[in-house]
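Schema walk-through. Below, the input block comes first and the output block second. Nothing else is stored per chain. Lengths vary across the set, and this one has 373 residues.
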Amino acid sequence: MLKIPGINHRMETAKFSSEALSELHVRPVERSEEGRYQEQMARHHYLGELPKIGETLWYVATWRDQWVAQLSLSAAALKCAVRDRWIGWDFRSQYGRLKLIANNSRFLILPDWHRPTIGSRVLSLPARRVVADWQARFGHPLLLLETFVDPRRFHGGVYRAANWIELGLTQGYRRTREGYSDQAGASKRVFVRPLCRDPRARLTHPNWDRLQLTGAPKIMLNADQMRSLPQCFTSIADPRRPQGRRHRLPVVLGIAAGATLCGMRGYKAISDWADALGQKARMRFGCRRENGYYVVPSEFVIRDCLVRIEPGTLDRALNDWNRAWGVQDDALALDGKTMKNAIDAAGRQTHIMSVVGHDSKICHAQKKSAHCP
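--- output ---
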């Protein structure tokens, strides 16, 4: 049989495309495989490896147990004007719903598998299982995938072939250590892949419960709110010794309050939120400046300050901020309970009463008493 290299290669490729694509499968990367995944991403992807930060899933595409491609799905971009216009939300309403979007932050076809239709086939497979995987892993749904393609390197045809929707170009600004770059650089093509019917309607739905999200909606602080938070605590006396103070108490309490308003729970989460603040945000909070950079208090400093301050004092200061910036309530709800086994020395049971706003969900007042109301 006469073998012509070019023709036989094309025949072999056509045979693989038509018969073997059905044997391609995508699955999450096992913990024992993460080292291999990162090593290959660092070696073959032009952006290198990407650590797991927040909600992240790594996938590998296999063909008869051979690794064909690798994907990383992680947190959505905080800001993307063309995406946000397509969805129809503003930056305040979208903040607590960003977790319903995942970013295809890495896509790598391994060197021996650059064959026609492999890329689009691999990209189409995660959409069939990522919804269930994300719900099982992180406890909330996923409605949309997004990705950014550098037009200087790629045309994005593989995403179009996999039924992703091209929305347009970014403005070219990129994340930096200080926040965002001052000047626009190279724009990226923005693609999205819906994971449900009409994701825009669901992402903009006014009813938070319909989104299957737990807890209260998070907010995004604007510049004026960042500046105003530390001012609420200026009247609180600093219980720390003067020696060794690196951060003013109003700054520490303002950052802790801002992190809590944005959905953080626990000292570690508050500290991570503070570390993620850009230089402009740190300046607005009034952070100290060292070697040309604004620095934030550590987890130890945040914890040390919060445990020393009397809770009622913090509550009164935050209520002042709520009155200036919070949602106005047209109605208040009063609720009271009698604590079954909480009895004082005189044999009286303890009663608790609270006042909560219907619209803001803020507890405006609460009182514990051993006397019946």
